[in-house]
Specification:
alpha/beta, ten-stranded mixed β-sheet, 11 helices, 433 residues, four-stranded antiparallel β-sheet
Amino acid sequence: MVPAARVVAVRTATTVVPLPQPLRLGAMTVERREYVGVRVVAQTDDGRTVAGESYALTREAPMAELVDRLVTPHVVGREVVASDGVAARASVGAAWDAALRGSAIVGRVGLVRRAIGLVDVALWDLAGRLAARPVWSLLDDGAALVGPAEPGVGGDKDAPSRAVAGSPRDVSPGAAVAVPRPAILVAAYPTPGRTARDVADEVLAHARAGWPLLKISRSPDRALMRDLLAILRAELPDVTGRPTVAGRSGVVVDVGFGWRDADEALADLDAWGVTGAVGESALAWLEDPLLPEDAVGAARVRDASGLPLSVGDEVTDPEVFAHLAMLGALDVPRVDVVAIGGVTVADPLVRAWAARGMVVSSHVYPEVSVHLGGAAGIGVETFDRSPTGNPYDPAPLLVRGGPVFDGGHATPSAAPGLGFTLDPDRFDLEAPS
């Protein structure tokens, strides 16, 4: 019997977790993390109920209401077919297209795209559970079939817009083996009252645990950043046993769109002492220096500093990536799987970048991004996943299951679907929203 089910409901719930101390992210101060959870419920012809789940940061936007009002009406009643990955891509992709076109008058990018992404992720989880296969296995079926078409993602403006990565493979259910993906740890935020030595010691402790890529956030205190980066450049190679390699190992600095323009960025970078490096890069990459749409400014920062750039957090429009790449300002593309519109859009983007030899990174939601792009398709980002939590992002406490992190790698679950569930004590998804 072909696995298929019809969507009968989309439910949403929101939860808030206060942070132990405020975080400075670019121009923003974050005192709490608010998340929305989504459950898509479907029924099979023989009366079984199957559900898929997703979650995301709301960034204080009314994400549950956007899902309920702008996406749910276009998804309820649609059929999800999961006889293989090609059928799953087609049926989930059709739901994605219906939601995009049904909300096009107010959506296409921005918050509505995020709302579509939330439902799309849950639909892929549902498809995997329906097929009794992990999502990464379904995605690897016929990987050359990557629709829907998106703008070019490489540096060649004449490259075809539809990404093609390899040829379709005959993958029978249960035959695929989970392969570890490279991972990056968000290691430390320079919060008030902490010295450069304090932050460096936190990063170095994670390096000793085997993490080759470690991310810190930018502090507006130039002297602190200069001292912090000097310590890490001097001590990190001895701890890890490897040099800094652009895109692959070393320290990442996340600016979080914190600089207004290229002039401000270059002044700060010069004060940090990381510009004009010869040979070994000063940083694995510099992340989100300016607003993502300022491709001209990013290209100037890239050319003048010599630092590899990474952009992608919260980007909802693939055209942004195309513009950055065209101007040579995208060394390490990052994909936020929910913001860009879900697995249906994110997976082909990742495969296209990887096919062009680019290192690819993800933004949060490691339970989902670990499934994208094939065995080495994406660097999976996570925060410390200690059972006691971390002071920066409580998301690991909201989910049960997910990938296994070890030695700087993330191995996706072999469980059906995405391999995680939302904590019912945090998200009440039993009753209709």
